[in-house]
Specification:
Layout: H1 4-18, H2 22-29, H3 33-37, H4 46-58, H5 64-73, H6 80-89, E1 119-128, E2 134-142, E3 148-151, H7 159-173, E4 178-181, H8 190-199, E5 202-205, H9 215-227
Helix pairs in contact: 1-2, 4-5, 5-8, 7-8
């Protein structure tokens, strides 16, 4: 009997079951009467809860911090502590994955672009040095021209580094309307979400387990691996 709700339930049970006053029940259970009589004046935040559940349904692997960023884009002003409380009350905690990945639910279908810079595709391919250390290579493709915009190899590439490379591309080629990627660690990082908010670029995540939805850059990665990575031994960058 720790929470205030549990204490109120115990006092109510004692009053109804044993026909004693509230004062007597509080004395027996050693609880403060002011806590039993208190009624919360918090608003129910129905609109905020509905918006939060909608974002959590669309982005199933987003925790409360990233949902907070998405809600700020929609005009909701609140701190993370309140959002975390509502997030826990709605039981939206991200579940730990188990077993093999399966595609869940649906996402809005993507249409083919009809001009340059309308949509860029982003994906990561990796290889290993001769000593066994691995290195990632993010690839970016313009889905209209099928042109490879960038291949950046490094021993470590964070979400912040990805945004810096995208900024460099934008300075050279202009800003895209949409960027498409999978649901990997870097594309779903806080740095990328903040970058989208600052640049007003729409970021579309494909369905889990459906790489064909990002087919242009997947095709590039296949050729890049077949013609370059599989044919070359790398001792360093």
């Amino acid at each position: 009997m720790v929470t205030p709700d549990a204490k109120r339930s115990a006092v109510a049970h004692l009053c109804s079951g044993h026909s004693v006053s509230q004062r007597r029940a509080c004395t027996v259970l050693q609880v403060d009467r002011s806590g039993i009589r208190y009624r919360s004046s918090r608003p129910d935040d129905a609109d905020l809860r509905e918006a939060m559940k909608k974002v959590a349904d669309e982005r199933r692997r987003f925790g409360y911090r990233r949902i907070h960023l998405m809600l700020e884009r929609q005009g909701f002003a609140l701190n993370q502590k309140k959002l975390r409380r509502l997030y826990a009350e709605e039981k939206l905690q991200v579940r730990k994955r188990g077993g093999r990945k399966r595609a869940l639910g649906t996402r809005r279908p993507m249409v083919l672009p009809d001009r340059v810079n309308e949509r860029w595709s982003l994906d990561f391919v990796s290889d290993a040095f001769t000593d066994g250390r691995r290195f990632p290579v993010p690839a970016a493709v313009d889905d209209y021209s099928r042109e490879c915009l960038a291949l950046v190899a490094d021993t470590s590439l964070s979400g912040l580094r990805v945004t810096r490379e995208l900024d460099a591309l934008i300075r050279l080629r202009g800003k895209p309307v949409t960027v498409v990627s999978d649901n990997g660690t870097e594309p779903t990082s806080m740095a990328v979400l903040k970058w989208c908010q600052e640049t007003s670029v729409d970021w579309h995540y494909i369905q889990p387990g459906k790489p064909v939805q990002n087919g242009f850059v997947e095709s590039l990665n296949g050729s890049f691996r077949d013609e370059c990575l599989n044919e070359t031994l790398f001792s360093s960058l």
